[in-house]
Structures are given as structure tokens and as C-alpha cells.
Amino acid sequence: MSTSTVEKDYSYNTAKLWQVGFFTLNNTSTNLHMFILGFVSYYATGIAGLAVMLISTILMATRVFDGLIDPTIGYIIDKTESKFGKFRPLIILGNIISAGTIIAVYSVTHLLPEALQLVFFVGMLVINKIGYSLQTSVTKAAQSALTNNPKQRPLYAIFDGIYNVGVFTGGQIFVSSYLMAKHGEFNMALFTELNSFGLILAGVFAILAVIGISEKDRKEYYGLAEETTETKLRDYWPVIKGNRPLQMLSLSASMDKLATSLLRQPVVVVMLFGILLGDYALSGTMGLITIIPTLLITFFGVAIARKTGLKKAYVTSAWVGLLSLVSLVAFFLIIDNPTTISLTNIGFTTILFIVLYAAAVGFASLPTTLVVPMIADVSDYETAKSGRYVPGMMGTIFSFVDQLVSSLAPTIVGAVVAMIGFTSAFPEVGDPLTQPLLMATLALAFGLPALGLVISVIAMKFYKLDAKKMEEIQTGIAAIKEKAKQKGDSVAG
Which of 191, 284, 406, 452 could cross-link 176 (Cys pair, CB 3.0–4.6 Å)? Predict the structure, then answer.
């Protein structure tokens, strides 16, 4: 048997399919928390009575705080070792903190004296970000322990793509078609019902994620196992400074995240569907219509990733998403009456909108899913390069840049709508469509997301971890572990 054959036999740590599926639910759990907090601006301005720009600034500041604490969270993950493993305790702790503060924000803020509302609101959001970061950072860090098989790592994207349809599409349908129809507006009854369903589901998903990672949450799957170089706090800056793939992936993915964050901002959805198209319920229906195309796009991207590597799939999807967003801007500038887009009277305009919108949402969102296993590739690159196993730091440095950039989404939305006169309240369903509101909607929904993807594609030109390079890395790591194993066996003998 040749050396290369032996290397390929032992170089891959492969998980069971159900383990990948269960662990991916950790990201779904945190996405549910993010989805629920996406409506907090309507609670804060409509019920608690806080100002639009103030809330937009606070939401940006808390996301920046989230990014600032991420390196500390990464250090905690890298140094955590317990009888329950490195990752499982942090999933549970993070979920409890995040869920508890969401309940407090929506249930208590408006009941407090006016002088205390802002302080309490900010305080709860800050604590929420600590819990959220603990749980979501594990999603990225534990990928390196779950599997290093290049045919299997991309499968995360399939599970995450399917689950995200449930969270973002199903959630939007639930809010726009059920909760809004039942309650008539964003009121306390609506928020209470949304939180009850969302937080219970998020808790169940967190438990399933713990089950999924349990078998792999052991030292033998951490980097070079016993051969891993010890990393002290002072070593982190040289690691970050010398890891070019981490730098480029962080920049690219953060711009892609900003693009998708703008697309999904509840205020932007209201402006696009509730005002420009004149049918807010259509947002939920469109989500339902685009489920199959979105899943097909995900399967297509994963097929490319399994055949030619994660980088190729990432760049291809970003390009198609970019072209689709640009086409949507042109589409709305050309058509005379956007309200003719209707499922009750389907014509060429409606069909073209559905096709372009499905392509934009599906392809622009795919890189944010593919990037999670790519962070594991970056972590393995560092292990092969320096012998250090720091997946927590790899994931949270990525999150640090990601949070700093994507935190701009609510602030950008608030600034744009304030510029066209919405200073005391956000645009609401049924507001008249003016020319400034039309241009603001197109800029927020499609124009600025397209610009984000342009930067994303440029950054990926400097990311060198393609399929060939990753095969070299995994073979090198496996060889070191096998050599250490043989040395240990000979000493024991």
C-alpha cells in the first residue's frame, strides 16, 4: 500500500450524518434568538416609546460590543476543558443567558419608570450579547472537531440552509400572515406569542446540538491531540497577524453578512412589501414560494463545494447573488407600477420578480452558510502551520469583524429612513409611496447589499485555501498525529 493511500485512510475524522444535522441546530437556535430581537425596534419605539435613531444607535452599539467581547469568548472556548467537554457547557450556558434577557427586554422595559427604561434596555441587550456569543461561537469553533472530511464539511450548509428556511421564511410567514392577522399590529400580545414559540424551539434545538457534538467533544479530536502546541494569551496576536486566510475570509464574509442583514431587516421588509408592493402579507407568501428554489440553490452550492472545494462554491454563489440584486434595482426602476406584482393576477412582471428575488435571496445567503465550515478550514490551516489548536479564537476573530460590519445594518436603515423624514417612527405598512421612499427602499433592499457582495468577491481573491491546499493541510496534520501515535506505541511496547 502506498504512503499516499495510507495517509488518505487515516487523515479524516468523519462524523455520522445525524451528528452533523443535530449539531447544525445550534446555529438555528441562535438564529431564532436573532430573529426575535429583529423586531425589538418596533417594541422599543411603539411600546416603550424610545426614539428611532436612538434605538438604531443602541442596536449598532450592542452588536459592536458583541464583536469586542468575541476574542475573550474565543479564549474561554480554547481554554475550557471539563468532564462535559469543551463545547457542550457553553452551548447550554449561552442559550440560558440569551433567552432570559430576551424575555426581560420584551416583558419588563415598558413597565419601568421612563428614567430607567433606557438603562434597563441597554443593560439587558449587553448581557444578551454575552450569552449569544457564547453559544454562537461554538457553532464555528466545534466544526474542526466534528469532522475534517472535505466531502462532509459542506453538508453543514445543507442542514443550515433547510433550517434557515424554517427560521427566516417560516418565521416571516408566522409573523406577517398569522401574528399580524391575529393581533393587527406590533403590540405586546404579538411579541409575547412570538417569544413563547421562538424561545421554546431555540431551547430544544440547543439540546439537540449538545447531543450531536457529544461524541466528538473530546481531546482526541482537538487539533493535534496531545501534540498540540500550548497557546498563551500573548500568542494570539501573532497568530491573527500571520493568518492571511482568516483575515480575508473575515472581511469577505462580514460584507456578505451585512448584505443579507439589510435584506432581512424587518423595517426593510415592511418598506419593500408593505409599502412599495402594497401587500405586507406577500412577504410571507414569497418566502413560502422561494423555499424550493432556496433549497435547490443550497444543494447546488454544496455539490460544487464537495466537488471543487468550499472556496469555489462560496465565490460562485456570491457572484450570482450580486448579479441578481443589481437586476432587481433595474427591474424596479423600469416597471411603472410595482403594485401590479400580485399572486392574484400573475403576469410576466410577477414571474420575473419572483425569479430575481428567489435568486438574490438564495445565492446571497449561501456564502453566510458556507463560511462556517470554512472557518474550520482556517483553524486547520493554523494547526498545520504552527501546531496550535485555537478554533475558538479563529471563530471569534471572524465574528469580531463580522459583528463590527454587520452591526451597521440597523444604523444604516435608521439613518436612511431618517434622511427621508422618518425621524420619530419607522415606515409602517400602508404609508404612501413617495419618490424618496422608493429610492430608499431600493437602496436598502438591493443596492447596498449588492455593494457588500462586490467587496466580498474582491476579498476572496486573496483567500488561498482551495480544495488542493486543504488536502495538503489535512494530510500533514494526519501524518503528525500518526507519527505521535507510533512513537507512543513503541514506548509502551
Answer: 284
Q: Count the Cβ atoms, other than its own, within 10 Å of residue 172.
A: 22
- CA 216 to CA 487: how far, in whole Å? 24
Q: How far apart are CA 274 and CA 286, in angstroms?
A: 13
| CB neighbour class for 251 (10 Å; exposed up to 12, middle 13-18, buried from 19) | buried
Q: What are phi and psi of 243, to 5 degrees?
A: -105, 90
**Contact of 390 with 137, CB cutoff 8 Å:** no
Rounded Cα distance between 428 and 285, Å, is: 19
Helix, strand, or coil here: 388?
Answer: strand
Q: What's the distance, Cα to Cα, between the start and end of the chain in Å?
A: 25
Please answer whether residues 298 and 161 qualify as being in contact, where contact means their C-beta atoms are separated by less than 8 angstroms.
yes
Whether the model clears a pTM of 0.90, i.e. scores above it, the answer is: no
Residue tagged 443602541 (cell numbers): 58
Best CA proximity match to 275, nearest among 167, 384, 420, 118:
420
Q: How far, CA to CA in Å, does 271 sit from each of 65, 127, 353, 416, 428?
A: 28, 31, 16, 12, 7
C-alpha cell at 215: 461524541
Task: Read off the pLDDT band of 228 (50, 70, 90).
Answer: low
What residues are paired with 313 via a beta bridge?
A: none
- Secondary structure (H, E, C), 126-193: HHHHHHHHHHHHHHHHCHHHHCCCCCCCCHHHHHHHHHHHHHHHHHHHHHHHHHHHHHCCCCHHHHHH
Q: Return the C-alpha cell found at 339.
A: 403594485
Which residues neighbour 111 within 8 Å (Cβ) at sequence distance 6 or greater?
none
Element (H, E) at 12: none
Q: Does residue 489 register a pLDDT over 70? A: no
